[in-house]
Design brief:
With 565 residues, this protein is an alpha/beta fold. It is 36% helix and 12% strand. It has helices at 13-25, 40-49, 70-85, 105-113, 153-166, 189-196, 201-208, 218-226, 254-260, 273-279, 298-309, 341-344, 348-356, 387-392, 394-404, 423-427, 442-447, 452-473, 487-492, 495-505, 525-534; strands at 3-9, 30-34, 56-58, 91-96, 100-101, 119-120, 186-188, 230-231, 236-238, 264-266, 335-339, 359-363, 378-379, 383-384, 410-413, 432-438, 481-486, 562-564. The strands form five sheets. The chain has a six-stranded mixed sheet, with helices on both faces. The longest helix has 22 residues, at 452-473. 37% of the residues are buried.
Length: 565
């Protein structure tokens, strides 16, 4: 015998029995530790199930909780039993009840036989490991942790905060440098016995009992004192997600596990019958594998993490939806937003559709309804024009519209009346192209038949709302391509901005405009604005609009718009 197996078991006892029999069948003695939390009836049944296997022993039981000392105590007791009961064992391999051998046992024995003095244990200082996810690194060795992180999270956090405030710093025992690594190791008999029989073991145990997650640091630290040759890696394939939780392997991971060439893998789903039947077989039917190399499948796990945290472009998913800033692209594709154009031009929407071939909507966030193209009531993806449905989550409404009409450029109108429009969202969206003629909201008021007192009140309200929208579009956080003209600037020479907009939206080789939308008649508009001023309302978003229409110089070169790249 050259390899002894320690198994830490707390559930799935039928699978643990199956794996234990497999190890002993090919010459590896097994020492099993059963969690003290397991009911006596279940424990006795498990003992009886393995009565007929001569090379199986059971160690002293300890209560094991995640991140607690019990897991180290369990490993110590199982290791002591192995050293005492099986003196011919050269290497001791720590595993769990959910671990599964992936290669013939003889290959593991031959591999370790060729490396008689090598300890396989992941062991690195806190400064060298970047994988402490959502936890503590150096502080786990210098603070006290009397409370369970899982059962008493509030007390755990508060006690950490109190110790930080008081600047508590525990003294590390002389002669050791704290190291961290995977819980699953394979140590030589000399190294393990030196750790368990160390004269200072009581001192080390007292210290590590108040270390957080000591099963990832106790043997990893002490092995550095006694090992003459450490390979800082585990022979067990154990993968973790971005939250630090272990990946569970199912039947459809069969080929993936084969590619790893590792000797053992965890965690295996207890009902993964295909995996257990495929790997727990005779050596004759096994596939010959090479040097263990879990890095060969790291790319697949990295893609799984990317899919879980990012998802597909422009789509929201459970794993990242609550977290702002986790988007993989805020929307799926490019789209264009126009503000003030439909008010200035009488036939802007059909003209834009003809000029660009894009799908042109009205005011998608109008208070009355979502004005889809052709004023449809339902559009791709079963999106309804009902304002109640749209306003329940306006951002989801917009992102769903862009996704469900992928392949087509979407254009729609926005104005100060559209108070439910997610202006900050598309201001920060790099896919958005926003063109604004500020102050154009006054044109419908100019043409309305309302009492002037009502007009003045509505004008003041709309100007304030548009000013807030422009603040978002001009924000340093805005990533959309934004162009802003005042109404006075735009009507001086509308052709150039229209051509620029069409060039960006339309086909790659856009032609010069041969058709332009019809501009509404603004005769008397300047006087209308002056009347608003005379009544105490100052309309400043239109720019310097002349009172007399004859003062408009159509040959005057246009001013450059406010442009945000």
């Amino acid at each position: 015998m050259s390899v002894g197996i320690l198994m830490l078991v707390h559930t799935a006892f039928d699978r643990a029995e199956q794996v234990a029999r497999h190890w002993t069948k090919y010459g590896c003695p097994v020492v099993i530790h059963v969690d003290a939390s397991v009911k006596p009836k279940v424990y006795k049944k498990f003992l009886k199930a393995l009565d007929d296997v001569p090379d199986v022993r059971f160690s002293k039981r300890h209560k094991c909780e995640w991140g607690d000392w019990g897991l180290v105590a369990a490993s110590q007791s199982a290791g002591e039993t192995m050293l005492a009961e099986f003196p011919e064992v050269r290497h001791i391999y720590l595993s769990s009840g959910s671990c599964l051998p992936l290669r013939p046992v003889q290959e593991l024995k031959d591999y370790l036989e060729a490396r008689p003095r090598t300890d396989f244990i992941e062991s690195a200082t806190t400064a060298d490991v970047p994988w402490t996810v959502g936890g503590l690194d150096a502080e786990r060795f210098t603070l006290h942790f009397p409370f369970s992180w899982k059962k008493h999270r509030f007390l755990f956090d508060k006690w950490v905060d109190i110790q930080r405030f008081l600047r508590v710093k525990r003294k590390v025992p002389n002669g050791i440098v704290p190291h961290m690594g995977s819980q699953w190791w394979c140590l030589t008999r000399q190294t393990l016995s030196a750790i368990l029989q160390d004269p200072d073991r009581d001192t080390f145990d007292r210290y590590f009992k108040r270390v957080w997650i000591p099963d990832e640091s106790y043997f990893q630290t002490l092995s550095r004192l006694y090992s003459s040759n450490i390979e800082s890696r585990s022979l067990t394939l154990s993968k973790f997600d971005f939250q630090g939780k272990p990946h569970i392997f199912y039947d459809d991971h069969l080929q993936l596990l084969r590619r790893s060439d590792c000797f053992v893998a965890r965690k295996i789903w207890p009902r993964a019958h295909k995996l257990y039947n495929g790997f727990l077989r005779s050596p004759e039917g096994a596939i010959k594998m090479s040097e263990p190399n879990p890095a060969k499948i790291d790319r697949i796990f990295a893609k799984a993490v990317e899919r879980r945290t990012k998802g597909r472009t422009g789509l929201y998913m459970q794993s990242r939806y609550p977290n702002e800033g986790w988007e993989n692209g805020m929307t799926f594709g490019r789209y264009s937003i126009f503000q003030g154009f439909a008010q200035l031009f009488e036939d802007f929407e059909p003209w834009l559709a003809r000029a660009t071939g894009a799908r042109v909507h009205g005011h998608l966030f109008a208070p009355e309804r979502a004005e889809f193209e052709g004023r449809q009531k339902v559009i791709n993806g079963a999106l309804s024009d009902a304002p109640r449905n749209r306003d329940y989550n306006s951002i989801a409404f917009l992102t769903n519209l862009i996704w469900n009409t992928r392949g087509e450029r979407q254009c729609f109108q926005v104005g100060p009346r559209d108070e439910g429009a997610p202006v900050w969202f598309f201001a920060k969206d790099p896919n958005a192209q926003v063109s604004v003629i500020s102050g154009a909201w006054a044109i419908p008021l100019f043409k309305s038949n309302l009492n002037f007192a009502d007009i003045r009140k509505e004008a003041a309200r709309l100007q304030k709302l548009e000013n807030d929208q422009l603040f978002a579009l001009r924000s340093p956080y805005a990533k959309a391509r934004v162009r802003i003209w005042t109404l006075a600037e735009f009507i001086e020479a509308p052709m150039e901005p229209l051509q620029t907009i069409i060039d960006e939206i339309g086909p790659e080789k856009a032609r010069r405009l041969s058709e332009v939308p019809k501009m509404t008649d603004l005769t008397g508009f300047g006087q209308f604005l002056q009347n608003l001023k005379n009544q105490g309302m100052h309309p400043y978003l239109m720019g310097d609009f002349p009172v007399s229409p004859g003062e408009v110089d159509q040959k005057k070169p246009p001013r450059k718009p406010y442009l945000v790249q």
